[in-house]
Amino acid sequence: MPPESARDQPASQTLSRGIRVLEVLAEATGPLSIDEVAARLGVHRSVAYRLVRTLEDHALVVRDAGGRLALGARLAALASRVSADLQAEALPELTAVANELGMTCFLAVHDRDECVTLASVEPRHAVASVAQRPGARHAVTVGAPGKAILAQLAPGEWPRGASDALRDQVRAAGERGYATSADEVIPTVQAVAVPLALRGRPAAAIAVVHVASPDDPEPIARRLERCAAAIRSALDG
Description:
Blueprint: H1 4-7, H2 13-27, H3 34-41, H4 45-57, E1 61-63, E2 69-71, H5 73-79, H6 84-101, E3 104-111, E4 114-121, E5 137-139, H7 144-150, H8 164-176, E6 179-182, E7 189-196, E8 204-211, H9 217-236
Antiparallel strand pairs: 1-2, 3-4, 3-8, 4-5, 6-7, 7-8
């Protein structure tokens, strides 16, 4: 067997760095220059340039008029095929909840130690709503959807170092059937989430986000449960 240090190395450093370029651009609040990408990757500008050129050839990265870099539309096309059947069944239900409650409703899935938004719908007629972009990710240990996901996992599947306070919150969420959060992922924003357990798929959650208010989470959670049940029924047949 190769030594431990060799096994811990990425199978392809170039591929790993190319994926990191996409992650860096996804996390940025606007287009980045080659120098900014290189700095965030910790590589020389020439290395970043070669990586970007390859990604441009596949339309995964594009340049604006000033030569700054952003994710390309091809990436969105690829992302739309991730769990396409789940997205197709979820979107009508998410839309109904968003418009009924006047809150952004989204589907989040478990990805290693993170919670990733797979699909999201903003309410049609709300005066103000919170944007939740597909592809957005944060640690599964924060936020209502993360807690709803953790409630479905065995203790050994949790990230290391989970606090006792978090374990208590997840235990309470499991007992009442929904999780809540406030100011955990986005300042001034509240969330309510329910688990979405689907056969043969990663743990997921249906959630809404809205600006902090005195809304009772109980009726919100019950509406989300009906949404989750409809999605399960459609997928499980």
